[in-house]
């Protein structure tokens, strides 16, 4: 049999229809905005050169939230809320997958924040709101691995889970809280004799990268902020070095590696804001009545890959009912 070679198609790469549709969707239907004015403003100034775009987050973006313990999970919750909300409520109208490595995700707390977030947009009764929230919660899929190996297996099986359990849903966001949960265990195992096989965390990160490429999902993860051994309190940067060896920071002055898994698009560094001191003349009863005294205020420094000199910022306040954002960006 004679093989006929078409010069017009011989050099074209082959691929699946699903991959083609993902590429088209990524270009024509990006997820949306973050819903955080200060953050959206920073992204417009960097990624979009100041253009007033409505969609500030692109498909396949990678968001790292790093810093001390306070605030990271609440900021991640906000991204999940934004992902599952319909477009009419300034959301992405997509499904979200949460990999809860810390086992600290509080569904009741999340539901309460979700209800508070949308209550102003729903003029209906509380009963209608509860029904609406329950429908939205069906778009959130939660996994709780207990080791890096289980994390790797979970991440590798997300495409199968998607095709079997949520084939009609689009994975807009894969959130991981917290990527450092098994850091010390993995570091101990990494110091033991190995046969050259990749570690559990490396396999998990590779699987997340495949999901990002195949589904066009946004990847958002929290990470510890560990100071380096050369940390100088008198002349220190507000940013933390990357301690997970399979990842790297795209910012100047930080260690680089030749191959990067999950290249960061936006990096956010959390800083707890000190609460004002209470004077002796303060009325105790009035102080107790002011619920804002118990709120936690967090400042977030934002960097965009490729724009090292431009650091944005915003702040948010965590209350018992909601997360309130402010700041210039």
Automatic annotation (TrEMBL):
It comes from the Eukaryota. This is DNA recombination and repair protein Rad51-like C-terminal domain-containing protein. GO terms for cellular component: microtubule organizing center; Rad51B-Rad51C-Rad51D-XRCC2 complex; replication fork. It comes from Thelephora terrestris. One of its GO terms (biological process) is DNA strand invasion. GO terms for molecular function: four-way junction DNA binding. Gene3D superfamilies: P-loop containing nucleotide triphosphate hydrolases (3.40.50.300).
